[in-house]
Amino acid sequence: xxxxxxxxxxxxxxxxxxxxxxxxxxxxxxxxxxxxxxxxxxxxxxxxxxxxxxxxxxxxxxxxxxxxxxxxxxxxxxxxxxxxxxxxxxxxxxxxxxxxxxxxxxxxxxxxxxxxxxxxxxxxxxxxxxxxxxxxxxxxxxxxxxxxxxxxxxxxxxxxxxxxxxxxxxxxxxxxxxxxxxxxxxxxxxxxxxxxxxxxxxxxxxxxxxxxxxxxxx
Length: 218
Prior knowledge:
single chain, mainly beta, Elongation Factor Tu (Ef-tu), domain 3, six-stranded antiparallel β-barrel, six-stranded antiparallel beta barrel, 5 helices, globular
């Protein structure tokens, strides 16, 4: 489990084939002294397990499922990545609960300056947008962000200078692909309120406001 508060960035140093998956080696900008074999590290929001570790580098295997759901399918040597080690129960939860399990890929549509912030619009499939709400939380390449506005096809976030300088979100340009993890609470509510033969809301009318009210959610 993660918080979406990025510790720092790293660089993808090597990519090796591993059957239908891949093995990444990542050089970190910060010291990994407390990281151990088997620990979880979020790389651009994707939870990976450390299989080799050095003072400022680690390796991790990437499964075919992860490649299919994330931007890693098109990753290249030299790519900058956001890094966050797993949450400890004694830590402050500065962002929101992030599982590191990516829902899919979005695309940066626009990036405009407003005051001291960057306003970024990100397009995404409607199947994911139904889990995003105005002023709710979303993880973009592992960065915990607050949603300003949302439609069926895109959402908008503000990036303050600190976040822009510490993460890859600050260097993303229009057309760039980003990993998206929606807030897990909405997905759990949908699953709990659906019948045994579970279908997403888009395919089933079983979940509505009256059902939520009768069940004590409203």
